[in-house]
Structure formats: C-alpha cells, structure tokens
Amino acid sequence: MSKKKTRNTKAKIVSAAWKLFYEQGYEATTVEEIIEESGTSRGSFYHYFDGKDALLSSLSFLFDEEYEALREEIGEEDDPFETLMFLNRRLFQMIENRVSLDLMSRLYSTQLVTKGQRHLQDHNRVYFKLLRAIVGRGQERGVLRSDWTVNEIVKLYALEERALIYDWCLCNGDYSLSDYAAKVFPRMMEQIRKPAEESEGR
C-alpha cells in the first residue's frame, strides 16, 4: 500500500470517527458505524487502531489534516504575525464545529497521564512544521523578534493555544472559543513582534 493511500485511508477513518463523535457522542458511536461512515473496511480499521478508544489520540491527526488544507490558503508574502493569528482562528473554529467539548476535555486529560507518546507534543507534526516555517520567515523578514529562537516562539504559541483550550474546557464551553481567542490571542502573542528599539537600531 502506498504511503499516500495509507494516509488517505487513515484520514477517512479519523474524519468519520470524529464526525460521528460530534453528532451522536462518543459512547453512542460504534466501530461498525465508523467503518460504514468512512467507506473503509474492518481490516483497514484494525490495521490502524486497536479499537474505538485508540481514536481519542487521533485528534492531533485531525488537526494536522486541517493545517494541510489551511496551508493552501497561506501566501509566502502574507504578514507572518497575521498568518499565525489566521491559523489560530481557523483551528478554534474547527474545534467548535467538529469536536465536542467532552472529547476535547477527555483528550487533554489522557495526554496528561499517558505514559506513551503525547501526540499533541509530537514536534514532527504538520502543526509544528508549519509554525516553524512561518516564524522563520517572519524573522528573516524582520517582522518577528530575532532575540528568541524559532522554537522558543513556536513553544509560546502552542502553550498559549493550549491555555485557551484548557480554560474553555474548564469553563464547560460557556463562551465561544474562537470569538474569545480572536480578542485575546493577538494580545497574548504581541510580544513575539520585533521590539521597536531593535527595528530602530538597524
């Protein structure tokens, strides 16, 4: 099986699973329904996942599929800071429209106690690769501060996103995640812009 076909098959299963989880709840969704919704086979499902519980760790895969799609909407000439804000806004909109609050909370709790790989922290994910590319471009163009490393800025970005998601889960989703982030996330990340004195010193 080709790498592309493998990725497509897994993506179909993940997308179908989270669609059903959102529409009818995790507990009410069966493996058989996921297989039918994805248009795949039982053999394919169990090739990638031991069972339904294993899909809880696949949310990072769903996020990366969204980032792959968003990559097409980003131009290299776009302002890097605004591009980062755009990615945050679109991701949070996707979370609100496709991921139930209960499962988002469950995912975060499992990532805290897992002894295996923490998928959200995998720096080989599309998420981290895309962020590093945008931040690097921002530093090269003199838009983002250069006294911090690319990885330091990316870590701050990811940390601030997780903080917003955690608070949203903690508050039981009693406000719009994307609307609130649109107001506060740019302020939280303002410190990654190049300091005025650094720009004036050139």
Indicate the proportion of strand residues: under 5%
Give the total of domains: 2
- What value does the average pLDDT take? 87
- CATH C-level class of the largest domain is Mainly Alpha
Outline type: globular
CATH architecture of the largest domain: Orthogonal Bundle
Proportion of helical residues: 55-70%
The CATH superfamily of the largest domain bears the name Tetracycline Repressor, domain 2
> What about the largest sheet?
none
Number of strands: 0
The helix/strand class is mainly alpha
Provide an overview of this structure.
By secondary structure, the chain is mainly alpha-helical. It has two domains: 1-49, Homeodomain-like (Arc Repressor Mutant, subunit A); 56-195, Orthogonal Bundle (Tetracycline Repressor, domain 2). The chain has ten helices and no strands. The protein has helices at residues 3-24, 31-38, 42-48, 59-71, 80-98, 101-113, 126-140, 150-170, 177-189, 196-200. Helix 1 (3-24) crosses helix 4, helix 6 packs across helix 8 (150-170) and helix 7 (126-140) packs across helix 8 (150-170). The longest helix is centred in the first third of the chain and has 22 residues, at 3-24. It starts with a helix and ends with a helix. The relative contact order is 0.11. The mean pLDDT is 87.
